[in-house]
Design goal:
Length: 376
């Protein structure tokens, strides 16, 4: 296959958290070498990689060092500064490209891109001042959600606005910085679709995942989502259309709201492996992590079929409050798998690992993983 980055080559990963770690595991299994750039010594991905460049993400000299030893460079999270990717793009294929990351790391650019291409999104307004926020809350109506344009994740940088009088407090609370105001959508469910797209433009999609959040952090994800087949197909078509419009190479996770009125709206894009796709590690013919490697290396994409329905439940640092959880108790359950990310310090709200359960139906898988987690 021309231009494919073949096993034995080195894959550079910007970001060394759990997503990088699971990509590195998939890459190592296929015979690649892996180099990681991340500021933290002994970060989750560095424990698996062949090389670790320990440096800040805006350190272009370090990024060049990574690029020099890599045959292709990818990312594990979209808040890597786009300028870092631009600095190495002349040296090595960077997938996804800085252009994609620039859109995905800025909510206003992201929502404008989606709306501009005709994809359905909640009503939104750009906000750059208190006056603009007050005008936006009149235009959008209440309740609404104020979100910072950059740097938000797991609900950080978000404020709900119940009435126009909340504007002053909310503007202060988000640090008086560039933001968007979004209509608050009454939700039936939250879904996500992970699309894989190769350099030639071929796409494959996983079945939609159905997700729940607790304290704005993903709590459980079930694949396939418990929705009618035509809705699942519609969600996949939407996600594949966005990946094509954005010209992503690699993975694109498309987070969606299923509104109570039955409409499907796009919430967020993540051009990387996604927490709601961890089920694929244990339950799919090809995991999202292996697909990321195949796609960025220009190799044929694998099957996205599931062997069985599966559900994951995240393990946050809070679980460690009374000491090490009872891993043997969950491992005694035959259809439950334990994934821990090798993080030294268990802080409240920090994603430390997840459990995955498979079953004959998505409902049973969800029940099984929740039962397992309750044993910890
Ligand atoms: P983050 O990037 O911090 O994860 P999101 O924009 O995905 O932020 O929001 C986190 C969660 O907050 C969503 O998964 C959803 O549960 C809720 N949420 C965010 N925006 C809206 C909205 N416009 N309407 C209803 N719920 C929302």
């Amino acid at each position: 296959m021309p231009h494919a980055v073949l096993p034995g080559s080195t894959i550079g990963i910007l970001g060394g958290g759990q997503l990088g770690r699971m990509m590195a595991i998939a890459a190592k299994r296929m015979g690649y070498r892996v180099a990681v750039l991340d500021p933290t010594p002994d970060c989750p991905a560095a424990q698996v990689a062949d090389d670790h460049v320990a440096a800040a993400y805006d350190d272009h000299v370090a990024a060049v060092l990574l690029a020099q030893q890599s045959d292709v460079v990818t990312i594990e999270f979209e808040n890597i500064p786009a300028a870092t990717l631009e600095a190495i793009e002349p040296m090595v294929p960077v997938r996804p490209a800085s252009r994609v990351v620039r859109v995905a790391q800025h909510r206003l650019r992201e929502k404008s891109f989606l709306a501009g291409h005709g994809f359905p999104v909640p009503a939104f307004c750009p906000v750059t001042s208190l006056e603009a926020l007050q005008a936006a809350s009149r235009e959008i109506g209440c309740p609404a959600v104020l979100k910072t344009a950059t740097g938000g994740y797991d609900g950080k940088g978000q404020q709900r606005i119940e009435s126009p009088q909340d504007a002053v407090g909310a503007w202060k609370a988000v640090g008086e910085r560039e933001a968007i105001l979004e209509e608050f959508v009454p939700l039936e469910k939250e879904l996500s679709v992970i699309v894989v797209r190769g350099p030639g433009g071929h796409t494959v999609c996983y079945p939609p995942s159905e997700n729940t959040h607790s304290r704005h952090i993903l709590d459980t994800a079930v694949m396939p989502a418990m929705v009618p087949p035509d809705l699942a197909r519609h969600a996949q078509k939407l996600a594949a259309g966005i990946a094509t419009a954005l010209d992503v190479v690699g993975l694109l996770a498309v987070e969606m709201f299923l509104a109570r009125d039955g409409g499907l709206l796009v919430n967020e894009l993540a051009p990387r492996p996604h927490n709601s796709g961890h089920q694929t590690f244990d339950a799919a013919v090809t995991s999202q992590f292996e697909q990321a490697i195949r796609a960025v290396c220009g190799l044929p994409l694998g099957s996205t079929a599931l062997h069985r329905p599966a559900a994951i439940a995240n393990l946050l640092g809070d679980l460690w409050e009374c000491g090490e959880p009872d891993w043997a108790a969950v491992l005694a359950l035959p259809d439950v798998k334990l994934h821990l990310y090798g993080k030294a310090e268990a802080r409240p709200g920090r994603k430390m690992g997840h459990l995955c359960a498979t079953a004959d139906t998505p409902q049973e898988a969800l029940q099984r993983v929740l039962t397992a987690r309750s044993l910890l």
